[in-house]
Structures are given as C-alpha cells and as structure tokens.
Amino acid sequence: MKVLAAMSGGVDSAVAAARAAEAGHDVTGIHLALSRNPASYRSGARGCCTIEDSNDARRAADVIGIPFYVWDLSERFHEDVVEDFMDEYAAGRTPNPCLRCNEKIKFAAVLDRALALGFDAVATGHYAQLRTGADGLIEMHRAVDHGKDQSYVLGVLDQQQLAHSLFPLGDTPKSEVREEAARRGLLVADKPDSHDICFVADGDNAGWLREKLGDRAPNHGGAIVDEATGQEVGRHDGTYGFTIGQRKGLRIGRPAPDGKPRFVLDIEPVSGTVTVGPRERLAVHRLSGTKPRWCGTVPSVLHGSVQLRAHGEELPATVTVAGEQVDVELHAPAYGIAPGQAAVVYDGTRVVGSATIVSTVR
C-alpha cells in the first residue's frame, strides 16, 4: 500500500512510520505545520508543532529512508480547532481540541488530501488497535497499553476513516516503543511526550484564553456565587477561566460554612455568573449528547460503558440512541462532567462512537 505517515517529531510517530516501511508499504512522511507562528524550541513536554519538532521529524524520516514533506495546515487548524476551542469556552463549555483535531484535521483534511494524491492509508503513532469484525467492518479497540490508550480521542472517526487508517503501535507497550526507537537509531527515542493542549505551550489555558478573548462580551468579569446561600463569595475576570468541577484558582475570599472546599458547579456566560458548591453536588447520574460520530453500526440501546475524559476511567452505562440524540444513564455517578466534553461509548474494548455532551442531570 501507499501510506502517508503523519510524523509529529515525537518518538511514537517515528516508530509508527518505521514499522509501516518495514512492513513493505511505500511510505512517505509528512509533518503538519499547524501553528501560524511556530516557536523555535519546545519547552520540555509542553506543546508541539515547533520548528524543532519539524526538524526532528525530518531527521527520523532520513534514518528510516523515506521521502519527507511539510504540509501547512495552519489556517485550517486555526479555523476548525483553535477558533472552536475559543468559541466553546466563551459559551461556558469545556471542549477537547484533540478530538476536534483528529476529526477535522488528521483524519479529514489530511486523509482527504492523501486519498486525492493516490495514497491508500494514513499511519499515525496513536495507541489504538484496528481489527476486522465478523460483519466485515473495521473495529477500533483500546490499545494493549491501557495507560497510553488514545482510543478516546479517536472516538470521532467513522468507518470510512478507519478503513484508511493504520495504528502500528496499538499492540505495543510504550516502554518497548522507546527501546525500539533506540535500536533503530532514531534520535527521538528519549524525547519527552507532549502534554496539554498543543497550541497553549505553557499549559496556562485560562491565561491564553484571557489574552485571545480579551474583553469579548459577555465573558469579561462577573460574580462567583455560592449555590446554597446565593451570596456572592468572589469575583472573576471571565467565565472562560473556569470549567465544571474546578477547585483550584477560584480566589474565593470566604470559606464555606462547613470549611470544605468549593467546586465550580455551573457557568453562565451571559450573566457572567460562576456558581460554586460542595463536591457532592457535582455527582452526575445521567447525561445527554448530540452530534454523534459512529465508528460503525449505529446502536439503538447498548449496555456498555462510557469514558468522559481523555484520561478518565471507564464507567458502566446504558446508552440509548434516537437520531442525533444520545442519552447515557450511568450505573454509578461521575463527578465534574461539563457540557462540551465528549462521551465516548465502548462495548468491551471496542469503540462504538462518541457524542458531545450538552446537558447533565445531577
């Protein structure tokens, strides 16, 4: 097969490209330039898409012995991922930009261009496994290394995208991937993994949003209100600096009557009100989602599980689907679940699909 290997400049994508080439595929490496003004150097494990990352990807391609190109998708990335991120926070929701990037960029814009250029598949360093099911459809399953499993952020991929995807690392623990990189002479073998949101290199989401959104109404300033008493217990600079379940950085002047910490329970961007209260008020038993993305056959009722955060636990649940509406009844409560997050549905280790959370019931 003709395979396009997306190479971020990290160890995972480098080994994935090497494995694809070793398997006999005709591999071409590409690095996605996603930043309009890429920094020269990374800051430890923060961020990605720097000039240094591009150079690391090029050196890895040279070692593997495959052609290498840089594709500039910075405008598309800014429109589909960065702007969406800002709009969601401005509306009081909590998005996951990695899911949006996989949906809109890596497995849409890149895959569409790859197929148009005559490639058969796109290979990435994601930790997930693909199998052919009894019905002939391509199934996506959790990676062998559950600590590195990335099936959650791939839960937006549909059958057509999965049919043209390769995840060569899904059957290998991360420690063995680093050892393999060293054996292959790849200089990125010990390079730190990137963490946090790639376009917020210092990890300060609130500070980044404050700079980008500025005084954009209606998010500039407002009251922090205690749910039980209705009293104002603090002020804030913008609702975009908060997410449901947040405890730190609330800058609340007075303690709760029982002395226990308060958590963000609700965000109302129009009035600028942030409501806080005790942790037990964060317990969610049911949630609803919309804009579903199904990896294969659409279920009607599924007794399986859901994952609600990229590194969250798997929660037993009953999922009911009616058109664009996805209702989830959790068998045990979850805490700190916010509209805008993704609910990714599993049947055992198989990813069924995902939906964007629009409401929760406590």
UniProtKB/TrEMBL annotation:
<dbReference type="GO" id="GO:0005524">
    <property type="term" value="F:ATP binding"/>
</dbReference>
<dbReference type="Pfam" id="PF03054">
    <property type="entry name" value="tRNA_Me_trans"/>
</dbReference>
<dbReference type="InterPro" id="IPR014729">
    <property type="entry name" value="Rossmann-like_a/b/a_fold"/>
</dbReference>
<comment type="similarity">
    <text>Belongs to the MnmA/TRMU family.</text>
</comment>
<keyword id="KW-0819">tRNA processing</keyword>
<keyword id="KW-0694">RNA-binding</keyword>
<dbReference type="InterPro" id="IPR004506">
    <property type="entry name" value="MnmA-like"/>
</dbReference>
<dbReference type="InterPro" id="IPR046884">
    <property type="entry name" value="MnmA-like_central"/>
</dbReference>
<dbReference type="Pfam" id="PF20259">
    <property type="entry name" value="tRNA_Me_trans_M"/>
</dbReference>
<feature type="domain" description="tRNA-specific 2-thiouridylase MnmA-like central">
    <location>
        <begin position="213"/>
        <end position="277"/>
    </location>
</feature>
<keyword id="KW-0808">Transferase</keyword>
<dbReference type="GO" id="GO:0005737">
    <property type="term" value="C:cytoplasm"/>
</dbReference>
<feature type="domain" description="tRNA-specific 2-thiouridylase MnmA-like C-terminal">
    <location>
        <begin position="285"/>
        <end position="357"/>
    </location>
</feature>
<feature type="binding site">
    <location>
        <begin position="6"/>
        <end position="13"/>
    </location>
    <ligand>
        <name>ATP</name>
    </ligand>
</feature>
<dbReference type="GO" id="GO:0103016">
    <property type="term" value="F:tRNA-uridine 2-sulfurtransferase activity"/>
</dbReference>
<dbReference type="GO" id="GO:0002143">
    <property type="term" value="P:tRNA wobble position uridine thiolation"/>
</dbReference>
<comment type="function">
    <text>Catalyzes the 2-thiolation of uridine at the wobble position (U34) of tRNA, leading to the formation of s(2)U34.</text>
</comment>
<protein>
    <recommendedName>
        <fullName>tRNA-specific 2-thiouridylase MnmA</fullName>
        <ecNumber>2.8.1.13</ecNumber>
    </recommendedName>
</protein>
<dbReference type="GO" id="GO:0000049">
    <property type="term" value="F:tRNA binding"/>
</dbReference>
<dbReference type="InterPro" id="IPR023382">
    <property type="entry name" value="MnmA-like_central_sf"/>
</dbReference>
<feature type="region of interest" description="Interaction with tRNA">
    <location>
        <begin position="148"/>
        <end position="150"/>
    </location>
</feature>
<feature type="binding site">
    <location>
        <position position="125"/>
    </location>
    <ligand>
        <name>ATP</name>
    </ligand>
</feature>
<feature type="site" description="Interaction with tRNA">
    <location>
        <position position="341"/>
    </location>
</feature>
<keyword id="KW-0067">ATP-binding</keyword>
<keyword id="KW-0547">Nucleotide-binding</keyword>
<feature type="binding site">
    <location>
        <position position="32"/>
    </location>
    <ligand>
        <name>ATP</name>
    </ligand>
</feature>
<feature type="site" description="Interaction with tRNA">
    <location>
        <position position="126"/>
    </location>
</feature>
<dbReference type="InterPro" id="IPR046885">
    <property type="entry name" value="MnmA-like_C"/>
</dbReference>
<keyword id="KW-0820">tRNA-binding</keyword>
<feature type="active site" description="Cysteine persulfide intermediate">
    <location>
        <position position="198"/>
    </location>
</feature>
<keyword id="KW-0963">Cytoplasm</keyword>
<feature type="disulfide bond" description="Alternate">
    <location>
        <begin position="101"/>
        <end position="198"/>
    </location>
</feature>
<keyword id="KW-1015">Disulfide bond</keyword>
<feature type="active site" description="Nucleophile">
    <location>
        <position position="101"/>
    </location>
</feature>
<dbReference type="Pfam" id="PF20258">
    <property type="entry name" value="tRNA_Me_trans_C"/>
</dbReference>
